[in-house]
């Protein structure tokens, strides 16, 4: 389901703001089993802030969430949103993985490729990462599958 309340800053009416848009989305969380944030999101400041608020509330309600595409930008720039959240899955491609690793101080070139995904998952406090590539690595920092 794509949420119809989400707005870019330029498309907000005079009666809309991040607070009331976030409240509309958060009000729906109890009816959801999982949230996917990212595909088609873009980098608009209002959209990202709304998503950040939804993530905070999803964590409080123990609702699992997946960050993909532009949703990964939130994990890169605001890692506290996902740090230590066992209900969070990050799904970066090669380029996105490199950005996340750099933001967390993990050198993808100096590390054994089989260990990098695990190291990044640990840096994020045990989130699950699905590193997409020629070989996919899935790790929560303790267990890694190839």
Automatic annotation (TrEMBL):
PROSITE patterns: YJEF_C_1 (PS01049), YJEF_C_3 (PS51383). Residues 1-146 form the YjeF C-terminal domain. The keyword Chaperone does not apply. It holds the Pfam family Carb_kinase. It comes from the Eukaryota. Keywords: ATP-binding, Lyase, NAD, NADP, Nucleotide-binding. It catalyses: (6S)-NADPHX + ATP = ADP + phosphate + NADPH + H(+). InterPro entries: Carbohydrate_kinase_pred_CS, CARKD, Ribokinase-like. This is YjeF C-terminal domain-containing protein. It comes from Cryomyces antarcticus. The lineage of its organism: Eukaryota, Fungi, Dikarya, Ascomycota, Pezizomycotina.
């Amino acid at each position: 389901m794509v949420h119809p309340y989400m707005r870019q800053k330029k498309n907000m009416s005079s009666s809309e703001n991040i607070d009331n848009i976030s409240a509309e989305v958060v009000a729906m969380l109890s009816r959801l089993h999982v949230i996917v944030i990212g595909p088609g999101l873009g980098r608009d400041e209002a959209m990202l802030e709304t998503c950040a608020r939804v993530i905070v509330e999803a964590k409080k309600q123990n609702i699992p969430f997946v960050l993909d595409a532009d949703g990964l930008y939130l994990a890169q720039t605001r890692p506290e949103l996902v740090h230590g959240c066992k209900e969070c899955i990050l799904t970066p491609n090669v380029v996105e993985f490199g950005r996340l690793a750099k933001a967390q101080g993990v050198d993808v070139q100096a590390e054994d490729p089989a260990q990098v995904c695990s190291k990044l998952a640990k840096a994020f406090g045990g989130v699950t990462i699905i590193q997409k590539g020629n070989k996919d690595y899935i790790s929560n920092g303790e267990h890694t599958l190839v």
